[in-house]
Design brief:
The chain has 142 residues and is mainly β. It has a single domain, classed as Lipocalin, CATH 2.40.128.520. Helix content is 13%, strand content 48%. It is built from one helix and eight strands; from the N terminus they run H-E-E-E-E-E-E-E-E. The chain has one helix at residues 2-20, and strands at residues 25-30, 37-46, 49-57, 83-91, 94-102, 107-115, 120-126, 133-141. An eight-stranded antiparallel β-barrel has the order 1-2-3-4-5-6-7-8. It starts with a helix and ends with a strand. Residues 1-20 form the signal peptide. Residues 25-140 form the DUF2147 domain.
Length: 142
């Protein structure tokens, strides 16, 4: 009886832990080329979709940078505070069908994100097919 109770408890705990993992929260972005931390992006849900906003720029020399290469309403806005991930929808274990914008060049890419454990987030930006793109791994910030 004790073995059955212990087994059931472990299964419930595992399910609850898996369900508690969520993409929302603050994530540290890492530069692909230098390996240095660039910014903190807060991922949040709004109207059933997922968005990501730059809440902190980690390089003091770039704290006041603006998005000069952006188009539309984002042109010339400060990068800190800019919403760079827009409109992702949950699809199984990943969120997709949205976009991500690179504030360094203003280009907008299709995007999907997926948790790789509780503290790592794989973020993929691509053009056309997801094979034609690149993936960054962001780490959760406490």
């Amino acid at each position: 009886m004790k073995k059955i109770l212990l087994t059931c408890s472990l299964i419930v705990l595992t399910v609850l832990t898996t369900m508690a993992q969520d993409v929302t929260g603050k994530w540290k972005t890492i530069d692909d080329e230098t390996g240095e931390a660039k910014s903190i992006v807060e991922i949040y849900k709004q109207d059933g979709k997922v968005y990501g906003k730059v809440v902190e720029i980690l390089n003091p020399a770039k704290k006041n940078a603006t998005c000069e290469e952006c188009s539309g309403a984002d042109k010339g806005k400060p990068i800190q505070g800019l919403v760079i991930i827009k409109g992702l929808e949950k699809d199984g274990d990943e969120y997709n069908d949205g976009t991500i914008m690179d504030p360094n060049n203003g280009k907008v890419y299709k995007c999907y994100i997926e948790l790789d454990g509780p503290n790592k987030l794989d973020v993929r930006g691509y053009i056309g097919f997801s094979l034609l793109g690149r993936t960054q791994t962001w780490t959760r910030v406490d």
